[in-house]
Write a structure and sequence with these properties.
The chain is α/β, with parallel strands linked by helices. About 50% of the residues lie in helices and about 15% in strands. It contains 15 helices and 11 strands. The chain has a 6-stranded mixed beta sheet with strand order 8-7-9-6-5-10, sandwiched between helices. Strands 3-2-1-4-11 form a 5-stranded parallel beta sheet, sandwiched between helices. A hairpin with a 4-residue loop joins strand 5 and strand 6.
Amino acid sequence: MATKDSRAKIEAIFQMCEAHMHAAYLETLASTIQDKLVTPKVFQFHCMSQARATVQHIVLPEGDDERVVRAAVQLAQRGLATITMMGEFQKTQAMAQRLGISLDGVNLLNPATADKTPHYIMQLYECRKSKGMTMEKAAELIKDANYFGTMMMYCGDADGMVSGACHTTADTMRPALQIIKTAPGSALVSSVFFMLLPDQVYVYGDCAINVDPDAQALANIAVSSAATASAFGIKPRVALISYASASSTDSTTIKMSEGAKLAKEMAPGVPIEGPMQFDTAVDESVAALKMAGKHSEVAGRANVCIFPDLNAGNNTYKAVQQASGCIAMGPIMQGLRKPVNDLSRGCTVDDIVNTVVLTAIQALQAKEA
């Protein structure tokens, strides 16, 4: 019997299901989800299918973490991504042997001995010399696995990176913000979580990056989050969330109102409304009472929720996750030229697998942009 802790049996079940599912039928079903409520199972299948169809090269800098090693093996075995994992060969191999898993299919890379290290040092110097970078400082920074992974992406040797299992968000994102920078047309980097509630997937932003965004930043976050939702098969209906309605003169509510107006100007084809209380945004019965007599494309049907600041966003996603027991996939970063995503230091193996899959899809989208 397989229990939730039977990792080998669970992996065997995954592989058998993937080998024997009627993939063509399921993919046809998944392709119709734009106009329907996107359930967690359909969302996850759609993401896995996309990742497997166009395998991307993802870097995992934290090869000395047991969870990362287990996730790397799963990803390689299931054909979800080409994985390069950093670490010292002997230590990583010893860990895998102790865990009873094989690293076949996983590329191992030690930045201290890699052939391209001198090239990355030079490229890092050239990229940042206007900011005071020296060759000596570049040589020191490249010892940091997050800088090394970022330089792999910058030089075209990898498509995306996932880190944060044992690094802070700042440590993970700083190299990307300095080197990869924002994509054309993106004014700032922000983040979303995919909240896999029992009957529907929601998108919450920004829950990890921007501490106190102004109206223009909120508009950018709303438009980016709508684009992210659409890219992952969710037809976006965006609500800018506030504790009060549009009639309030509170500064936060005014900010959300201005943000909604700017967002609608930036993306006129996307249903975007606000400010709106959370229950009004997501519950049709509440919306019918509070919005009586008013036409709204969003009220009661919102699936993308934009919060006024990091305090509200981060606490809301955690409260929903803890209260409902749902899967929270993220944070997924938006607005970079190439995708770099940050893990929670409390992440599970499944969290890492899911984040790599989403990163792979973002990498493909970046190439197609």
